């Protein structure tokens, strides 16, 4: 089955460009387009896309609030990839904290765009560039540190979280730590449960904000 994608951007040329790039792939299908975040929830309910490529800044409802609305009202929710012009955008980080699964620059090369959609759809690796890791670290606070301490990760779970923060997939973590793939999946699930994280993006945000891992 192809990966189905909903494009959300107030610029028609951006939507047209993304559609052309994605639909050139045999395993990706663009099933719909929206010009504003206000249209996202009904379109997600109707089309049930695997991935929503969501612009951050839109006139009526921005990508942050649209992400929150999807995650609050649609079950199971699609994967959400925020798309923006600026890499060091606090809005992007806020969208990730709201529950988005990854990040893509509008100026990315076609191969990078296709890879990003496939990565987000698979859900076992991370689109979280260094600039956003720095923002996460700068937003560190005592509440995040206390939550990490309360999670009481085992030594192995802690090491798995560090590898997740590097952006490694489950298969890459397994190869790095010399573990079986199912064992890694078990540890990742345990880390998410202990941190109360919806997905690995939220877990990695918690890791940086708490100081458990640091950029670099």
Automatic annotation (TrEMBL):
Superkingdom of the organism of origin = Bacteria
InterPro entries, per the entry? CheY-like_superfamily, NreC/VraR/RcsB-like_REC, Sig_transdc_resp-reg_C-effctor, Sig_transdc_resp-reg_receiver, Tscrpt_reg_LuxR_C, WalR-like
Q: Cite the GO molecular-function annotations of the record.
A: DNA binding
Residues of the Response regulatory domain: 4-121
Q: Name one GO biological process term.
A: regulation of DNA-templated transcription
The entry's protein name is Response regulator transcription factor
Residue(s) carrying 4-aspartylphosphate: 55
Alphabetical list of PANTHER family matching this protein: TRANSCRIPTIONAL REGULATORY PROTEIN NARL-RELATED, TWO-COMPONENT RESPONSE REGULATOR
Organism from which the protein derives? Streptomyces telluris
Name the keywords, alphabetized: DNA-binding, Phosphoprotein, Transcription, Transcription regulation
Occurrences of domain HTH luxR-type (ranges): 146-211
Q: Which Gene3D superfamilies match?
A: 3.40.50.2300
